[in-house]
Amino acid sequence: MHESFARRFRGPLTSANGGYACGRLATYIRSDAVEVTLRLPPPLERPLEVRVEGDVALLLDGDGVVAEARPVVLDLEPPDPVSVEAAEAARERQPREWEPEFRECFVCGERPEGDGLSLHVGPVAGRDPLYAAPWQVGESAPEIVWAAIDCPGAYASGAEGRGTLVLGRMTARVARVPEVGETCVVASWPLGEDGRKLFAGTALFAESGEVLALAKQIWIEPR
Q1: Which CATH topology does 2-72 take?
Q2: Annotated domain spans of the chain
Q3: Staple 26 to which of 14, 34, 72, 111, CB 3.0 to 4.6 Å?
Q4: pLDDT digit string (tens) for 27-67?
Q5: 141 CB-near residues (< 8 Å, 6+ apart)
Q6: What is the pTM of this model?
Q7: DSSP of 118-130, one letter per residue?
Q8: 201, 153 Cβ separation under 8 angstroms
Q9: Residue 186: its pLDDT value, please?
Q10: What φ, ψ does residue 111 adopt, rounded to 5°?
């Protein structure tokens, strides 16, 4: 089995968006929640081997392990839902400043309309340290949901803006993949830090407040 990440799904300029790559590998695991650890930046535009060994799935680039997925139990409580109106106001509070490496990110970067998710989370008024943004769903797939609940965690983790953080591990549960045309809200919040590791939680809500997806993440501050 093989996977390949088109350049459209880049996070940094030269590698795939971490959440999207994690979501693609997670589809090989039969579990309510899946933990994916990124070992190497997922390369773009070339075939990568997927090897399933028992309940573990490996994404391989030659002899290098790019990522490893396994079934887990996700122990994380979501915050109360954020309304679309509150999320729209929060989005306007995000300073649109990116590190050059992340300016074209599929999830949170500057892209032509319809080419990326354009998720720009900002602080929710009166609910510090919660961040949120609305999302008008244009593509419906589990890996798109994983992507949507990826980058918002970096903004909430305590770094300045998007910062230079890279995703190290993501554990997620997708209860329902929203349909094209749905209006959703993505929310994120910090979960502490340990040296160069910063922790965050993210959630995806339907307009009704239904929890569609939930994740916790480990972000790494490069040296």
Answers
A1: Thiol Ester Dehydrase; Chain A (3.10.129)
A2: 2-72, 84-220
A3: 34
A4: 999 999 999 999 999 999 999 999 999 999 999 999 999 99
A5: 177
A6: 0.95
A7: ----EEPTTSTT-
A8: yes
A9: 98
A10: -135, 155
pLDDT digits (tens, 9 = 90+) for 158-181: 766 677 899 999 999 999 999 999
pLDDT in tens, 118-150: 999 999 999 999 999 999 999 999 999 999 999
Strand order in the sheet with 197-206: 2-3, 48-53, 56-61, 64-72, 33-38, 166-174, 211-220, 197-206, 183-194, 131-136, 122-123
Instruction: Work out the number of other CB atoms within 10 angstroms of the CB of residue 193.
Output: 16
Residue that the structure tokens 């080419």 belong to: 115
User: For residues 184 and 206, is the Cβ–Cβ distance under 8 A?
Assistant: yes
Burial of 2 (0-12, 13-18, 19+ CB in 10 A): exposed
